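Please predict the structure of the following assembly.
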Amino acid sequence: DTAVSQTPKYLVTQMGNDKSIKCEQNLGHDTMYWYKQDSKKFLKIMFSYNNKELIINETVPNRFSPKSPDKAHLNLHINSLELGDSAVYFCASSQDPNRGGDGYTFGSGTRLTVV
Amino acid sequence: GESVGLHLPTLSVQEGDNSIINCAYSNSASDYFIWYKQESGKGPQFIIDIRSNMDKRQGQRVTVLLNKTVKHLSLQIAATQPGDSAVYFCAEKAGTYKYIFGTGTRLKVLA
């Protein structure tokens, strides 16, 4: 039973298109995240949500809009895709850090290729 | 600026030897660190963590050492096995909800 699941696993699309990546966790965690991993394997946080509220937005372009319908889901919508958006996007979750939770459980990633 | 970096981008070791992966961090106030392992096509997986009130922590075949004086972390893997081949990241807790990841070290285990 997958703890943090992302769909799709692969996404190839043309520049200018709009696409969404979905993430769901069944761990009962309060906090969810989106990270971007570039071609050099560098992982950088994009967003963090705690109990459906946006906590962190790391200077991500407005074309990226996260949505958390409930604390088990954090979806990522990207408008007007650009070549530089090509990367692997990881969803992660953790227990509420304010209640002693540490460390993330990551999904298996969504490889986005913009052509 | 804030950064967590690694000295060696690729490390090749013979099967059965010990591996040491290093990491430097910049924020002396950081109080919690994690090592993650990322296998090809998968997300990072938690290996071991350490809090700043400790210098050393051991797990199964892995040991993390923390030197706060020089802001340095290392991950030691004993008797390295082919299944240990992966990219290893250190991560520094930079806020309640945020970790900063290092640039990663690729470990290659040679048969």
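The longest strand of chain A covers residues 43-50. The radius of gyration of chain A is 13 Å.
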